[in-house]
Design goal:
Layout lengths: L2 H16 L4 H16 L9 H4 L1 H22 L3 H6 L4 H19 L10 H14 L4 H15 L26 H25 L2
Amino acid sequence: MLGKTHMAVGIAAALAVTAPKTIGEISMAVGIGTVGALISDIDVESSGSCRKANGVILLVSAVTAILFVADYFGKMDLLRQFSGNGSAVRILLGIFGFVGICVFGKKQPHRSFMHSFLALALLDGAVALAFPLFVPYFTVGFLSHLAIDAFNQKKVRLLYPWKPGFCLGWFHANGLADRAFCMAGCAISFWFLARALLAAFT
């Protein structure tokens, strides 16, 4: 499926499964759910995810630096809130671990490591080390990517490094089904987002 479809479905899944009730939770469901839904396709040379992978890595580094500076000079306590009172060393280890896993995955064949439960476990571990509150949103987004890719005609190596892959073979990656998934994801996202925002402001 295309990136916009993965994003729409990932956000819809994150909102539906985590049922956010505050503005902070809604932001994490949308933002972290999107990252989880798109990260798998950094292993596609022609994909937007892959072309932007270096930019994402730089962005993560920049945001981390800004958070540290804001915490140090502004005493905003952002890192403490997101990391569950984790130490700066633990946060940095988690971030560098996440980036390292992505760099490795970027060099692997498409639909192999970055489309596996092993990659999810490793990435979840890195996220939990740095920002444990992000884990549910990231996990749901990542699983949504694997789920809709399984409908395609190309196999996904869910149990990497085991070589056999899995697919239902029902649809082409860029066809009517992709557009249907995208529209459904957008509709569900707007529905759950509206409900969450209404609940947050009442």
